[in-house]
Amino acid sequence: MIIVMKQDATQAEIDGVTKRVKEAGLRTSIVTGAERTIVGIIGGAVSPDLGSSLERLSGVMQVLRVSRPYKLASREFHPEDTVVKIGDSFIGGDNPVMVMAGPCSVETEKQIVEVAKAVKAAGAKVLRGGAFKPRTSPYSFRGLKVDGLKLLAKAREETGLPIITEVLDTRDVEVVHKYSDILQVGARNMQNFNLLDEVGKQNKPVMLKRGLSATIEEWLLAAEYVLAQGNHNVILCERGIRTFETYTRNTLDLSAIPVVRKVSHLPVVSDPSHGTGKWYLVPAMAAASVAAGAHGLIIEVHPNPDQAKSDGAQSLTPENFALLMEQVRAISKVQGLSRRPLTAAKA
Ligand code: PEP
Ligand code: MN
């Protein structure tokens, strides 16, 4: 159960709620958001009597029953879809599928500007590009760091495309925030709780990738960290999980997309590039993701995939990306049909 306080609730009124909950043998977890305070009840079942007595306390706006461990990320807490504004476009709800595209890593000015122009011409709304790169081996290319951010800013200047780029460490949040429009938290950092807290304090959207071995619940609890700090512009990203299968780099969990849409209000993006690891599998899984209800896609594109400093094997050429976009547009047209709500069988 969560208690949503009125916007002008005083500390004494919040304390009054905590006291009443403690008297019932339960504990509270208080989330002080930018707009209002939310008091979550933890530690056991809440009786209907306690619920209605809390509803009558001064300063309380609403008492909501939330059965999930994540509260702010749950659809129970926020029945409407969250829509996030990125540049002049919107992602989430019934907005058109937002495609983010660009190279795995920013390499040179020529490379990033060329890709930015190509993906924009094909219909992408956001430019991706890693400047701080998480690499399995410390000997692999780890990105151009701040110089890479500056090149991304240059590409934004040339094309007008907003930028998404990864922030790897709490120490880099300030500089990445300065240059980017969306802060990406990578799969390997999904449970870096200090980083989640830090991006939660920023005033730019955060895209949170699913961890390599994270359950959907763990992923949504990670999103809860960001939301709990007052940043409500969180976008989830399914990028494949580790399974026994080795033919593909990861197993893109397509079912996670409708699951997340059911249990949460946050927009969900699919990353078929990391999800498959093979460029020729990317268009099919992009189309499947859109059919499954993804609000957006993030796709790796490189002018010369063979020479890419990272993830060339899963990168599309600009020409193939344009073909993917045609396919995505075609699927988007019929996708509305899959959103008709089903009715559960009566028990
Ligand atoms: C990336 O987007 O380049 C990346 C490193 O992704 P992930 O965190 O999903 O591996
Ligand atoms: Mn990559």
Question: Can you offer a commentary on this structure?
Answer:
The protein is α/β, with parallel strands linked by helices. The chain folds into 2 domains: 2-64, Alpha-Beta Plaits; 84-338, TIM Barrel. It contains 11 helices and 14 strands. The chain has helices spanning 11-23, 48-55, 109-122, 146-159, 173-179, 193-200, 216-228, 256-263, 272-276, 282-291, 318-335, and strands at residues 2-5, 27-32, 37-42, 60-64, 84-86, 89-91, 98-102, 126-128, 163-166, 182-185, 206-209, 234-238, 268-270, 296-300. The strands form 3 sheets. An 8-stranded parallel beta barrel has the order 7-8-9-10-11-12-13-14, surrounded by 7 helices. The protein is globular and about 65 Å long. The model has no long low-confidence stretch (mean pLDDT 94). The structure holds phosphoenolpyruvate and manganese (II) ion. The site of manganese (II) ion has 5 residues, from loops.
| Tally of DSSP helical segments | 11
- CATH level-two architecture of the largest domain: Alpha-Beta Barrel
Uncertain regions: pLDDT < 50 for 5+ in a row?
Answer: none
CATH class of the largest domain: Alpha Beta
> What's the gyration radius in Å?
21 Å
Order of helices and strands: EHEEHEEEEHEHEHEHEHEHEHHEH
Inertia-based shape: globular
For the report, how would you describe the main beta sheet? 8 strands, parallel, barrel
Bound molecules: phosphoenolpyruvate, manganese (II) ion
What's the average pLDDT? 94
**Total number of distinct structural domains:** 2
Number of strands: 14
What percent of the residues sit in helical stretches (DSSP H or I)? 25-40%
CATH superfamily of the largest domain: Aldolase class I
Briefly note the CATH topology name of the largest domain.
TIM Barrel
Give the end-to-end Cα distance, rounded to a whole number of Å.
Answer: 26 Å
Order of strands, main sheet, comes to: 7-8-9-10-11-12-13-14
Query: What would you call the structural class?
Result: alpha/beta
